[in-house]
Here is the input.
Amino acid sequence: MTTTAAPRGSKRNPNRNPNRRAKLVPTLVLALGGVYALAPVLWVVFAATKSPAELFSTFSGWPSFNGGFTGNVAALNDFGDGRFWLWTMNSLIYAGGGALLTVAVSASCGYALAKYRFRGQKLIFGALLAGVLIPGITLAVPQYLLLSEVGLAGSYWSVILPSVISPYSIYLCRIYAAAAIPDEMLEAGRVDGAGEFRLLRSVALPVMLPGLVTVFLLQFIGIWNNFLLPYIMLANDDRFPLTVGLYSLLNRGASQPALYTLVITGALLSIIPIVALFLFLQRFWRLDLVAGGIKG
Amino acid sequence: MSDVRPAARTVRRRRRGPGSAPYLMSAPAIALFVAFVLLPIGYAVWLSMHAMRVTGGGFGIRSEVFVGFENYLTSVTDDALYGALQRMLAYGLIMVPLTMGLALLFALLLDAPRVGGARAARIAIFLPYAVPGVIASLLWGFLYLPAVSPITAALEAVGLPAPNFFGEVSIFFSVANIAIWGGVGFNMVVLFTALRAIPAELYDAARIDGCTEWQIALRVKVPLLRPALVMTSVFTLIGMLQVFGEPTTLQPMTNVITPDWVPLMRIYQQAFLENDIHLGAATSVLLALVTVLMSLAALAVFRIRAVRSGQ
Here is the structure.
């Protein structure tokens, strides 16, 4: 992981001078931004502590301490024989499986595009770049129609497979491979007698790891947050991911407000794991990769 | 590694050679690209040129026949789609400038000297990116709903009239706000990361020339951010064209959002609710074309500007 650690800005940030006092206005503006970002999350934490009766009768800017939260979790647990946990599992399968496959496919293709000169290379890269511009989401309807022709619509694969191809991930892998893997390293491997695939596995992939973590995270969050694709592909609510599941619950809640507390508690429980993952992996992100300012 | 026989390996490598390796390595990606991008596009185009028609005399047998550009004509003259486009533009006029403006403002503030709590603010503002759009819409939906909204409750407590978040006009701000909330943080972090890559000497030079921090931000940092700004703007524009999840989630809460509120919702309605897959395909092809053209136009405009300013 450390072999390619490019200089991180924080170490040499010229701007920060801790000896002088913080400026008031910029600090205040950033604080306002933070409040704006956190307020809805705080609201859902408060609202999840309320029983269905309290939700509409107590002030919503403050939590309730009457055991409403445990009641809500129990109700969510019981709902449709633990359907909520099934949706969570499904989300994990779609996002985890899809992102892993994306990383494998994109790393191999990005490496090939960065480190070889071959016929059709320009065509492949050009087509992929055009693919970045084509909104993945407008493809969902024809993808559904094609997958239903081959009898895959409604299956786990119908959500995973279209998510695996990510031109943007391939593009990022190509940039990262070009910047992080010196040609001399590959030549040295060839002199030692390693085959091309051995080089990819034992030389390139370890070096590319920090970039691959970023690709994985972007893809994981992208698939976890996706709504339209599973919404179009899936009919059976056993296969719903959390986004579609909670939406269907909210839809029913319009006529049964008692379901609102379930939706709120479900929303809270569904963002906890991803926020935790996100905060935990923060340090491993290489967002300079996304910003296009990578220096090997 | 030491037990490899160089001679044997060299022979094998020469036989298979690096020639086939890059093709094999990119084969899975190409196969998936063909299957899930090119084929669907081709299929959508094919579908858009066909329609279900009753043929074969009076027997009422429906079959798929070639109709040329008829679906496109229907789609282009569809008043509902026209309305959806207008609403998308109204939404985009609020969402795109505010998302990019706030992201740039916050990124510059994070990078400015002597700003307190920058790290905490960065994490807090980035956090909504991890919240799925549908969950975000659901959270904001409840904040908009008079019966449970703390905003309404707080305003009423001090005797002020509560705003109607689901009004004819306010709905555009309500929907845009959800996308802004979710999008600012990611764009901010991308811009901030790009700022960090700018060499410090440039700022020192500007300071010696007597620039204030404000001038440095506008005259030095913003021009250098151009590539990152172009990329984030194009993604935000594409996000505008694809808006679907937020209004769809808010729909059960209000009557202001119709099932054909934005183009993608209209496509869904055509393809699945009205069961006219052919018309839906024509509209999707049109929307995809508009997206590609707008992205290319945005890239071209920014590139021309960059050339003009000597970048």
Remarks:
- Confidence is low (pLDDT under 50) at residues 1-17 of chain B.
